[in-house]
Design brief:
alpha/beta; Aspartate Aminotransferase, domain 1; 45% helix; 14% strand
């Protein structure tokens, strides 16, 4: 009995040590959350892309509603009709009873993506946690070190079921190829972000897909920030984003051979839902083996309604919205270039990270932006490496030209008051 008690104490001590280490790692973030109005804020009111926190109005550049569908009256007007027919929230799991709205969405998505098939889930996180372990089986999961944290959660869950996790440096295809050549697993899964959620840069899906096919692996792409923004390209595209917003796979003119695409509707489409594009046989497997399909509550009817209407609006005027989004993003990037301020955004997507020269100034920078009416996403350690601590500007089609004007004005003032990382430092590195 004494030995059992000793083992229990050891397990508790190990657990306590892990919690202590994690709390220490998050101490910067916890202090920022406690002291800065730009974190854990309660938003009292919105007026377009202006938000009110207490008695303070700010231009919102923290939203991921890239196409502005959350404020689009045509999309909003779709909700009452669907709620009148279906209620607010049929509570069946999809296995028990799946409203025909899901099939309509999946049919529309499959056509838009040019995919073999699609399956809708409530969120991307639930997809990662359920699908990655299934596809990894007892094989190997290769994960880009800069992949989204929820991908890692899915990969770590896969290890509890017998898989091996291998990390490779961000966008280092040579290292990935070396790992694939040495691996002897029968199942191999390569997990990447299509568009990085901090830098706004696009992974070369063609290169990754070629490696996956050569080594009999599946390429698993999280395109949360690309779907709805970038898509198929041609000679007369209205913007560098391409057309139709039909994903990073189509942006590179790729097929779905050995490729599984995962994306959400909560960003560009402003709706609580997500999907996986996959072969029909994989879809049948997921319907019986993925816990969210079997057990989770469904998306609200309002989200299904806005998804369907959003897909219609995208076909009619989505390219116009994307061109406007590109124009606004380009203005901000040109401003940073004039100021000599570094951003890792090299592909022009509407996610513009601005790292600080001194990470300890993040609280003061956040307060400065807040006081000057600009709301952004603060990126503290450990959300990003200490060398990349700063803030992220996200633009949407619903931001007005006047709001972008104000952002540019405040960025100029910020560069005069604080040390931001410079373009010359990046070139020297």
């Amino acid at each position: 009995m004494a030995a059992v008690g000793s083992r229990r104490k050891d397990r508790r001590r190990a657990s306590d040590d892990w919690v202590a280490r994690w709390l220490q790692a998050c101490s910067d973030l916890a202090e920022l959350e406690r002291s800065n109005p730009m974190t854990d804020a309660v938003i009292d009111e919105i007026d377009g892309r202006m938000i009110r926190i207490g008695d303070h109005w700010l231009a919102d550049f923290a939203s991921c509603n890239y196409l502005g569908f959350d404020l689009d009256q045509e999309v909003i007007d779709a909700i009452p009709e669907y709620v009148a027919k279906w209620g607010t929230h049929p509570s069946w799991s999809r296995l028990l009873g799946s409203p025909v709205l899901y099939e309509q969405i999946e049919e529309r998505l499959t056509g838009l993506l040019g995919a073999p098939d699609t399956l809708v889930f409530p969120t991307i996180t639930l997809i990662h946690l359920s699908v990655i372990p299934l596809l990894a089986a007892s094989g190997t999961v290769f994960v880009d070190r800069r992949a989204h944290k929820t991908i890692y959660e899915g990969a770590e869950l896969a290890t509890l079921r017998g898989a091996t996790l291998q990390r490779f440096e961000h966008n280092d295809l040579d290292q990935l190829e070396s790992l694939l050549r040495r691996d002897r697993s029968t199942a191999r899964l390569i997990c990447i972000d299509g568009v990085n959620s901090m830098t706004g840069n696009v992974a070369d899906v063609s290169e990754y897909a070629a490696l996956a096919r050569e080594h009999g692996a599946i390429l698993y792409v999280d395109d949360a920030h690309g779907f709805g923004v970038i898509g198929e390209r041609g000679d007369d595209d209205p913007s560098p984003y391409g057309r139709r917003g039909n994903s990073v796979v189509r942006y590179f003119g790729e097929s779905y051979e050995n490729v599984v695409l995962v994306a959400g509707l909560s960003k560009a489409y402003s709706s609580l839902a997500a999907f996986i594009a996959c072969p029909p046989e994989m879809k049948r497997l997921l319907k019986t083996a993925a816990p969210p399909y079997l057990y989770s509550g469904p998306s609200p009817v309002a989200s299904l309604a806005t998804t369907l209407r959003g897909l219609e609006v995208n076909e009619r005027r989505g390219d116009e919205l994307r061109t406007d989004l590109w124009t606004k993003t380009r203005r901000v990037l040109e401003c940073l270039d004039r100021l000599g301020v570094r951003t890792p955004n090299h592909h022009g997507l509407p996610i513009v990270e601005v790292p600080l020269a001194h990470a300890e100034q993040i609280g003061d920078v956040g307060q400065f932006l807040f006081d000057n009416g600009i709301y952004v996403t603060l990126a503290a350690y450990p959300l990003v490496p200490r060398t990349e601590v700063g803030f992220r500007v996200q633009l949407t089609a619903a931001n007005t030209d006047a709001e972008v004007d104000r952002l540019i004005e405040v960025l100029g003032a910020l560069a005069g008051a604080f040390d931001l990382q410079s373009v010359t430092e990046e070139k020297a590195a």
